[in-house]
Specification:
Blueprint lengths: L9 E7 L2 E8 L1 E6 L2 E5 L6 E14 L2 E15 L2 E11 L5 H17 L6 H22 L1
Helix pairs in contact: 1-2
Length: 141
């Protein structure tokens, strides 16, 4: 009987409504779960998770790649991670100046909120802008 071992790599697929964002063989993935970040290595126990807003960090060899992730779902299998995100971007495609302007607009909108109406929308815009800036700056560092 052939011996079966744990996988040594993960096939990571990230899909957004615009199409396939990433498909590559990786060593590790860290993703923003709705209840906090989680890490996945080859051989991980299968699970499903909802995703929050944040950064996906992909480890391959000695390098790291950063992407944004805004809400969605993640399926983890021992040899594969499937991410379906409402919105996701590669770090190199983020316009940092535009994200700075969006952050300033979101901060102004948050300051203008006088009751619960409008808070969630302004807060989500702020989180998106700050996440984009963090991912863009990590990529350029």
């Amino acid at each position: 009987m052939a011996e079966t071992g744990l996988p040594t790599k993960l096939l990571l697929e990230i899909v957004t409504p615009e199409g396939l964002l990433l498909r590559e063989s990786v060593d590790q993935v860290i993703a923003p779960g709705s209840e906090g970040y989680f890490g996945v290595l080859p051989g991980h126990t299968p699970f499903l998770s909802t995703l929050g807003a944040g950064q996906i960090t992909v480890f391959t060899g000695g390098s790291k790649e950063y992407l944004t992730c805004f809400w969605g779902f993640c399926e983890v299998l021992p040899d594969r991670v499937n991410i379906l995100a409402e919105l996701g971007e590669r770090a190199e495609t983020i316009d940092a100046a535009r994200a700075e302007r969006a952050k300033a607009r979101a901060e102004a909108a948050l300051k203008a909120v006088t009751d619960e109406a409008g808070y969630e929308e302004a807060h989500a815009a702020y989180i998106k802008a700050v996440t984009r800036l963090a991912v863009a700056h990590r990529h350029r560092a």
